Amino acid sequence: MNQQVHKELDHLLENYPQLAVCTDDIWNAFTLMTDGFRRGGLIMTCGNGGSAADAEHITGELMKSFKQRRPVSDEQRAALEAAFPNEGAYLADHLQRGIPCISLVSQVSLMTAFANDVAADMAFAQQVFVYGCPGDVLIGLSTSGNSKNVVNACATAKASGMKTIGMTGEQGGKLREICDVTICVPASETYRVQEYHLPVYHALCAMMECSFFY
After folding, report:
1. How far apart are CA 163 and CA 212, in angstroms?
2. What whole-number distance in Å separates Cα of residue 161 and Cα of residue 64?
3. Would the pLDDT of 202 be above 70?
């Protein structure tokens, strides 16, 4: 593991010393994400309200450059230029390597249809059931750890052979019982939990980027 990865975690703890209690869980979450990507797996995210915004945010940081450039490889550039001699260089210059990640909160038509036709608390779980493969990773965000739709998604993921990461408040809730790793930040008020979640997942995204694109 390169030194920059450790520096990113150290930087998080310097700025948010209260998160020192989460150090092992943050590292374990990073390990699950790294292993999943190395095996060609997909990362999925889900949450409600502000945590839905966080789920989208994580996806954005993983799918494109975050803190440093992620140019396409020489082989990818050559393939683009060979397929499209006139536009290939432009495509290669404006594409970036990424870590495959999808936010389950973005599928509005599917979610509303499933909520109306089947069960609202299973809308995330349905996507996990269809998209998920063994070795994929689900990140479920819930400030209480008890959001039913997130808990159901994590349970479905576990049964499908996926790895699960919960991000919650200090009590952990049901996610703490279900997930492979649960990052329980030291706060209980919803807005305070979310304030801690952001620097944690920023650190995880930066650590991933350092591992594969540094």
Report:
1. 20
2. 27
3. yes
Cβ atoms of 45 and 184 within 8 Å: the answer is no
Considering the chain, what is the average pLDDT of its residues?
97
State the pTM of this model.
Answer: 0.96
Q: In Å, how far from its chain's centre is CA 13?
A: 20
Give all domains of the chain, ordered by start, each with its CATH number.
Answer: 3-67+99-213 (3.40.50.10490)
State the Cα–Cα distance between residues 127 and 125, nearest whole angstrom.
Answer: 5
Residue where the block lists tokens 């699960």? 164
Sign of the alpha-carbon torsion through 192, 194, 199, 203:
positive
Please state whether 6 falls in left (phi above 0), alpha (psi between -120 and 50) or beta.
alpha
Structure confidence by residue, pLDDT tens digits, 49-82: 999 999 999 999 999 999 999 999 999 999 999 9
Integer Cα distance of 93 and 89 in angstroms: 6
